[in-house]
Structure formats: C-alpha cells, structure tokens
Automatic annotation (TrEMBL):
Its EC number is 3.1.1.11. CDD domains: PMEI-like_3 (cd15798). Residues 54-80 are annotated as: Disordered. It comes from Dovyalis caffra. The keyword rRNA-binding does not apply. Residues 55-68 have a biased composition (Basic residues). This is pectinesterase.
Length: 331
C-alpha cells in the first residue's frame, strides 16, 4: 500500500509542468503573432509613407496648352480674291470651297464675291425648304412634328424673301446697311427653323434636316460677315477680318449721310416730324382725315418701294388690335 501510494503520488505530480509548458507556449505563440502583426503594420505604413513621399517628389505634369490651329490651306487653283475675302468669315473652309464651286467670275470684285456668297446661301435654302416639306408630308400622324415643320417652313419662306428680294436689291443700289439688316434677318429665320425642329427631332429625316440647316447657317453667316467688312472697310479686302462686336469693345461709327445707311435717302435717325407723315391714325376715324386703325394705315403703304420711308403718324389713344406688317411692306 505504501509503495502504491508513493507511486500514485509520483505519477500525478508531473502533470503540472505540462500545463505550465502549454500555457507558456501559447503565450509565446500569441506574442509572436502580435509581433508579426505589428511588424507588418509598420512595414505597410512605412511603404505607404515612402510612396507618398515619392509622389510628392514627382508631381503630375501640367496639361499643355492647346496649340493654335494652323492657317487653313487651300488648293492652288483657288482664286486669291476668294481666299482674301473669306478671311472675313467664321467658316473659312466652307466659304472657300462653296465659292470655288460656284460661278464666280474671273478677277472678281468684292461685291461680286459677296453676291456669289449670297447666291450660295439662297441655293442651299431651297434645298432646306424641300427637306422640310418632306418632313411635313410624312408627319400626318404626329401633331408635334407637323406643327414644327409648318413653323420651320414659314421661317424659311421669310428667310428666302429677305435674301432674294431685299439683299439682292439692296447691294446693287448701294444700300449696304440695309443689306446687312436683311441678311441678318434671313440668318435669324434659319435659326428659328432649326430651333422649331429641335423639339420634334424623332426621325432620321428630321435629324438630317437639322444637320443641313447648320450648313446653311454657316453659308449665310459667311455672306453676312463679308457684307459687314465691305460696309466698314470697302474694297480693301486685305483689311477684312471676322466681325467684332461690342462684347470685344468695338463700336461702329455711325455712317455719314449718303453712305448707304438707313432705309431711305436723307434719313438721319430720330423721330420724323408729323408733317412728313404719309398716313395718320386717330380714334375718330376718317371724319378727321385719318385712318381708324393702324392696320388700315399699314395696308395703304406701297409694296416693295425703296425710295424713302413710309411714315405713319399714330395719334394719342388706345388701339386694341393686332397689327400685321406683310413682308412686302418696307417702312
């Protein structure tokens, strides 16, 4: 018994060091893992810091400024007069190519070049009218597109009138500022047409027409730009350049009498005297020798007359009416 007890005692006591050893090894392993984690964290932080420092020493390159466009080059067969005149336009490439393909006489004068540019605009305007007519014919089931096409067609008709009957008549008569006003109106009507179609652009034909209208407006803009240079600088095409406006600090000097400004000879601006009135409007009507409505007075104005202004004197009163001034009434 004694021996057995002793043996039992001796066999049970050695277990404690094993537990202590396991605990020590677990602690050592945890400490090693913690050290490894801290080492990796510090290494990653050091790497990040190094990367940031490297990036700081190598800043990103600044964007280079866009280079200025080289001057356009044209075929050697292009008349130099056309190239020189087209420098006054915003779309020089389109200007030179369109005039080179048109019937410009040899050794053309600046006025002949301008008239050719107007002719290019007029020819393309007819094409645009045909395209809009096709949109209208194929828009039976679309009220929105039908309305847009009708508005566009009306605007193009007004544009054509300004070009063919107004600008064509004004330039030969030396009415340069009148030609500027009419050509500017023609360009504006073309823009109105494109703007109308913008809200009904749901077919490929409408999209093609709007694209063509952009081309048409570039031709009209070129013609207008040359008229502006011709008005300001005359035949000296070497001094022509793209138009500048008040936004760029350029203010035009008012033309002297007889230089082609205004709508009629002798007009110097301001309000004309009542004694020069061609028609008078008053509330009492014809009993006092005047028209009762403004529309009646407008209707009496002659059609397509350029000699002078047609002046209507409207006496004091309230006139509740909608007045429409037809295209052929140039007042």
């Amino acid at each position: 018994m004694t021996t057995l007890t002793t043996n039992l005692t001796s066999t049970t006591h050695p277990r404690k060091p094993r537990n202590l050893l396991c605990i020590s090894m677990a602690s050592l392993l945890s400490f090693s893992l913690l050290s490894l984690f801290l080492f990796l964290s510090l290494s990653l932080s050091s790497s990040t810091t190094t990367t940031l420092r490297i990036n700081q020493h190598h800043p990103t390159k600044q964007k280079q400024k866009p280079r200025s466009k080289p001057p356009p080059s044209f075929p050697a067969s292009t008349p130099p007069e056309i190239i020189q005149a087209c420098k006054a336009t915003r779309f020089q490439d389109a200007c030179v190519s369109s005039l080179s393909n048109s019937h410009v006489p040899q050794n053309p004068t600046p006025l002949q070049i301008i008239q050719s540019a107007i002719s290019v605009s007029d020819t393309n305007l007819k094409t645009a009218q045909s395209m809009v007519k096709s949109i209208l014919d194929t828009s039976t089931g679309s009220i929105n597109r039908t309305t847009a096409a009708k508005n566009c067609m009306e605007a193009l008709n007004n544009s054509q009138y300004r070009i063919t009957r107004s600008t064509g008549d004004a330039l030969p008569r030396g009415r340069i500022k009148d030609a500027r006003a009419w050509m500017s109106a023609a360009l504006l009507y073309q823009y109105d047409c494109s703007n109308a179609l913008k809200y009904a652009n749901d077919t490929s034909l409408t999209n093609q027409t709007m694209s063509f209208l952009d081309t048409l407006m570039s031709f009209s803009s070129n013609a207008l730009s040359m008229i502006v240079s011709y008005d300001a600088l005359g035949n000296d095409t070497k001094s022509w350049g793209p138009p500048k406006t008040e936004r760029e600090g350029v203010w035009e000097i008012r033309s002297a009498p007889g230089s082609g400004g205004g709508f009629g000879s002798g007009f110097r601006g301001g309000f004309p005297p009542t004694s020069a009135a061609d028609a008078t409007v008053c509330k009492d009507g014809r009993n006092n020798g005047c028209y009762k409505t403004v529309q009646e007075a407008v209707n009496t104005a002659p059609d397509n007359k350029w000699e002078r202004r047609y002046v209507i004197h409207i006496k004091e009163g309230v006139y509740e009416e909608i007045v429409r001034v037809p295209l052929e009434k140039k007042m």
